[in-house]
Design brief:
Number of domains of chain A: 1
Number of helices of chain A: 20
Distance between the termini of chain A: 29 Å
Strand order of the largest sheet of chain A: 1-2
Oligomer: heterodimer
Helix content of chain A: over 70%
Order of helices and strands of chain A: HHEEHHHHHHHHHHHHHHHHHH
Structural class of chain B: mainly alpha
Number of helices of chain B: 3
Strand content of chain A: under 5%
Order of helices and strands of chain B: HHH
CATH topology of chain B: Helix Hairpins
Number of strands of chain A: 2
Structural class of chain A: mainly alpha
Radius of gyration of chain A: 21 Å
Largest sheet of chain B: none
Distance between the termini of chain B: 48 Å
Largest sheet of chain A: 2 strands, antiparallel
Number of strands of chain B: 0
Chain lengths: 479, 100
């Protein structure tokens, strides 16, 4: 086997090897010795990012089951950005909460390796394996605080529903394999050219089961039950990581399977997916309004954002496909930042998760309050932030393909969602803070990462054309 | 040899038993076992389809699934131990700090 056959998996290998290195570093660390394990992770992720840049446009394939096309590489780069931001925010929080850093970074990197694999895999079985690699890492990350009962409970609930949904996903793969004789996406697509195959009852069952499996992973209604619990119980940095990273990887595979391989069956999945998108947007927003905890509110907000991504997926036109990639990048930057501020605002004993804990943050820490405002406004879709442009692309894609109902519900729910984002902002500026809430301390690395995210949010909000063109180029390779 | 449908029906029944087990049983270990039953029901489908199509692919896929199931069981049991240390019970109804 020539070494060039490995080219397409180089970004994933970079991240995996660094993950193993982190694990070894932790194992051979003397008690009490401090090691910059996070820095090691940054090197690995930088390597993956550079490798993804070098592979850009080459469309290399490894073993026929991993394809480093521009679509996969774009998502890889989004995942690298999410990983870098997560590591930057983590170091300070880990020390404060006394979380074993070697384990934490190793699991984060293994999770990222699974996500990168999922974004570039072109075989249903490999997508399943990647899904399991990333899920197992994230289950443990959710429960990584041993002293926290909520963490263990959240991890277990996430695990239970995750394992349950993987079984459905796998059952879908089994039927697709039975009908088409292969798990490779290109071979399945080759069989699905005839009417007999697209209308085969077992193939419809396969499609439905795959839809359930993906629905769980992107937390679409009615498969969203685990999301609020998992995000609330997990440490805030982990919640930021999994709300963005898992979603990006799952949507990449979702789009690859449904918009490319199962495109001939569009008539069958389109109504179901539209209904799911509508339910997701409405429920995410309405229940989000009623929340009094910031992490839980952000969890419902993340469900609603999943709904907007589904709208882009349903529309299925050029602009919709590019909008998925753009939205994932913007959402990643914004949500990791918002959860990071929740993490920084808390203390070891007190999560400072309740909305009232943010009262008067402006007086205690003006910079943090300003940054939180930027992230929340971007999540709510205010111009000139990136969130506005991302939503604009999604809704114009829906209008372009004639899905007016989806576009209207999308716009209405984003207007309602502004209410709960602004409620936090008003709380931070107008209300008086309680005396027992301490002033948050932000380390230099976290401050830098927050500043970079905020600048990128404004950059993508004011000059989105360049990145949007890049996203539009990326989708040309697979669809 | 029985036709393909027999295997598929058996597999579907096993999958349904597993699914019901996840919802109805009130012991977290049994719930974990129910998920294992679901995965093994799928394995049966893979082997039956593989045999029907005349390839060994189905059987090879089963090896991957068994590996994943083992890894999942390890993580699942570790999480159960973490839960049990906080509350000395295996009844999922006791784990309600986070509201659904």
């Amino acid at each position: 086997m020539p070494l060039t056959a490995l080219m397409a998996v180089v970004p994933m290998i970079c991240v995996t090897l660094t993950g193993i290195a982190c694990m070894m570093a932790e194992a051979f660390r003397n008690r009490g010795e401090r090691m910059p394990i996070g820095g090691l992770g940054v090197i690995g992720l930088a390597g993956a990012g550079i490798a993804a840049g070098a592979l850009w446009g080459q469309n290399t394939t490894s073993f026929g089951v991993v394809q480093a096309d521009n679509f996969g590489l774009f998502v890889t780069i989004v995942l690298v950005v999410i990983g870098l931001l997560t590591i930057a925010f983590s170091s300070q929080v880990l020390e404060r909460d006394d979380v074993p850093s070697g384990e934490y970074y190793a699991l984060t990197l293994f999770g990222l390796a699974g996500m990168i694999l999922m974004a570039t895999a072109t075989d249903l079985l490999l997508i399943f394996l990647a899904l399991e690699v990333l899920s197992l890492a994230v289950y443990v990350l959710t429960a990584i605080r041993r002293d926290s009962f909520a963490g263990a409970e959240a991890g277990f609930k996430y695990f239970l529903l995750g394992g349950f949904s993987s079984a459905f996903f796998l059952y879908g793969i089994a039927f697709a394999f039975g009908v088409t004789g292969s798990t490779r996406l290109d071979r399945i697509a080759a069989v699905l050219t005839s009417r007999a195959a697209t209308e085969h009852p077992l193939m419809l069952v396969a499609m439905g089961l795959l839809l359930i499996g993906f629905g769980f992973k992107v937390s679409a209604v009615p498969f969203h039950m685990w999301t609020p619990d998992a995000y609330e119980g997990a440490p805030a940095v982990v919640a930021g990581f999994m709300s963005t990273g898992v979603k990006a990887a799952a949507f990449a595979a979702f789009a690859r399977v449904f918009l490319s391989t199962l495109e001939p069956m569009r008539a069958a999945w389109m109504p179901a997916l539209s209904a799911i998108a509508i339910a997701t947007m409405i429920l995410g927003t309405m229940v989000g309004v009623a929340q009094t905890g910031l992490k839980r509110m952000l969890a419902y907000s993340s469900i609603a954002h999943g709904g907007y991504l589904l709208v882009a997926l349903v529309s299925g036109n050029e602009i919709g496909k590019a909008a998925i990639l753009f939205y994932l990048l913007v959402y990643g930057l914004t949500n990791v930042g918002a959860f990071a501020i929740v993490a920084l605002a808390g203390t070891r004993e007190r999560g400072n998760d309740s909305l009232t804990d943010y009262a008067g943050l402006w007086h205690r820490h003006p910079t943090l309050a300003t940054l939180m405002t930027i992230f929340l406004l971007s999540l709510g879709g205010f111009p000139p932030t990136a969130g506005f442009v991302a939503k604009w692309y999604v809704f114009s894609a829906a209008v372009g393909s004639g899905d007016y109902l989806l576009a209207i519900i999308g716009v209405l729910t984003s207007v309602v969602s502004v209410f709960f984002y602004l409620r936090v902002v008003v709380m931070m500026y107008m209300a008086e803070g309680a005396a027992e809430v301490s002033r948050p301390i932000v380390g230099p690395v976290a401050a830098l990462a927050l500043a970079v995210s905020a600048i990128l949010i404004f950059y993508l909000g004011i000059l989105p054309a360049q990145v949007m063109t890049l996203a539009a180029d990326s989708i040309a390779t697979i669809f | 040899m029985p036709p393909l449908t027999h295997y598929l029906v058996l597999s579907a029944i096993l999958f349904a038993i597993g699914t019901l087990g996840v919802f109805l049983r009130r012991n977290v270990i049994t719930i974990l076992l129910s998920i294992e039953i679901m995965l093994n029901a799928v394995n049966l489908s893979f082997v039956a389809f593989g045999r029907y199509l005349g390839t060994v692919d189905g059987q090879i896929i089963v090896f991957f699934v068994v590996t994943v199931a083992a890894a999942e069981a390890a993580v699942g049991l570790a999480l159960v131990i973490a839960l049990f240390r906080h509350r000395e019970t295996l009844n999922p109804d006791a784990f309600t700090t986070l509201r659904w």
